[in-house]
Amino acid sequence: MPEKVVALTKEISHLTGTGLKSIHDVTRRTKTIAINAMIEAARIGEKGRGFAVVAEEVGKISEQITEIAVQLETKLKARVGELDAHGHTLIRAIRGTRLIDLSSNMIDIIDRNLYERSCDVRWWATDAAVVDALQAKSPVEGETRDRNRCGDRYTSLADHASRRLAVILNAYTVYLDIWVADLSGKVVATGRQNKYREALGRDVSKTEWFQSALKTKSGDDYAVSDIEMNPVFRSTVATYAAAIREGGLADGKVIGVLGIFFDWAKQSQTVIDNVRLSEEEKRHTRCLILDAKGRVIASTDGKGVLTESFSLKTEEKTSGAYTDSCGRVVGFFRTVGYETYVGLGWYGVIVQEVVQPGEAPTSNHAPARLRMELDRTEALSQAAHRLAERNGEALPDDEVLFGGMAPQPRIDLGKI
After folding, report:
1. Which CATH number fits domain 125-267: 3.30.70.20, 3.30.450.20, 3.40.50.300, 1.10.8.100?
2. I need a surface site. Which of 27, 118, 302, 320 has the fewest CB within 10 A?
3. Rounded-to-integer distance, Cα 391 and Cα 383, Å
4. Among 189, 171, 74, 61, which residue's Cα sits nearest to residue 125?
5. Residue 314 or residue 405, greater confidence
6. What is the rounded distance in angstroms from the CA atom of residue 273 to the CA atom of residue 270?
7. Could you give the CA distance from residue 239 to residue 197 in angstroms, rounded to a whole number?
8. Cα dist. 33→4, 23, 45, 70 in Å?
9. How far is residue 109 CA from its own chain's centroid?
10. Residue pair 221/342 in contact by the 8 Å Cβ criterion
């Protein structure tokens, strides 16, 4: 691991610094001894002349050792600093490349998943039960019908279409529901009527997916909306839609729209939670899916979905990595689509703090919140006690002070 190389470099720097400091201490003491010896030799006179020569040489050797130590320290600092810089550069390069690969894999899984959704909606729009439910709503040209008999038959076919959709949903668990809407935008059949009762009869004429599907030129085309919070499901969905055409033919007259609602919240979370990161990495890494506008549509911490705009520095590149202003490494990869699915300009993004071995990540929000709460509680307790002492009153019991919820003993947050 490059991180271990950097850690060893710092350790070598520390050991070298400690050793050189010891050398300086020794030479300083040697100099002091040599000076004292020369003074003592001068005091003795002629008899101390030979000793003075030795003391002088010891002083010179001490100075030479000091000079060598200073030069060694200067050179080592430069080399170790250079090695440390190269080590960090290597770390960022390796980490950046890895995060790009993981981002690519993450968005590729999303693309493959959504490609299947684009196939499903076009296929199911041609289902006989779905087509018959809408064709029965208006008389065939030149044919007259009894109004009541026609209405009964239409209701029966709509119910049959709903049952057919229910069968599909039992097999395709990634969807929340499937709706059939007529040309006016009224939902006439759904696959989960018992679960989402407000869906049947709902007006979807103003929705983007309905209007876009009506404008498709053939049965080979489909419409897709940005990720949104659907009020019926109370969850984020990816909505795919296709025009329902007479006879289920690709060039048939449009008679309605089929909308399928992909369970984006659950399925996208599964994808980003299973990015190949170690448990240690997961503690200081955030995986994101961004839409074409930079809006967060999925995140491993569940925060900012549909509300946060992430400022991604792509520099007009489809993939890359960089270090942000907080020192975190950011890797990204723009969708390239899959098969006939061209993608929606989304990005897979991974943001990772650079944590040295033995260090704790700074983004551990839970302990921070707990610390704030404990500090606030303790501060309130101490303030109340000081006020009571100043007024000469009996000290309030913590259980009374906090309404039956006495503050708990202080927790060692370093062990959390």
Report:
1. 3.30.450.20
2. 302
3. 12
4. 189
5. 314
6. 5
7. 19
8. 43, 15, 18, 21
9. 16
10. no
The CA distance from 165 to 153, in Å, is 18
Partner residues linked to 190 by β-bridges? 179
Question: What is the H or E stretch that residue 149 is in?
Answer: helix 147-171
Question: What fold, for 2-107?
Answer: Helix Hairpins (1.10.287)
Q: Is the dihedral of CA 231, 232, 238, 242 positive or negative?
A: negative
Using one digit for the tens of pLDDT, what is the confidence trace for 295-345?
Answer: 999 999 999 999 999 999 999 999 999 999 988 999 999 998 888 788 889
**Prediction pTM value:** 0.67
6 vs 117: which has the higher pLDDT: 117
* Domains 2-107 and 273-352 belong to one CATH topology: no
Instruction: Domain ranges for the chain, please list them.
Output: 2-107, 125-267, 273-352, 365-415
Residue type, 278: S
Pairwise CA distance, residues 255 & 122, whole Å: 14
* Cα separation, 136 vs 145, whole angstroms: 11
Integer Cα distance of 364 and 378 in angstroms: 22
What is the distance between the alpha carbons of residues 350 and 356, in angstroms, rounded to a whole number? 18
The amino acid at 152: D
Higher pLDDT, 232 or 413: 232
CATH number of 273-352: 3.30.450
* Residues contacting residue 223 through CB under 8 Å, at least 6 positions apart: 208, 209, 212, 213, 215, 216, 240, 241, 242
Residue with tokens 């990634």: 174
DSSP state at residue 358: T
For helices 147-171 and 128-135, give the axis angle rounded to 10 degrees.
160
Annotate 321-373 with DSSP letters as a single string.
EEE-TTS-EEEEEE---BTTB---S-EEEEEE----TTPPPTT-HHHHHHHHH
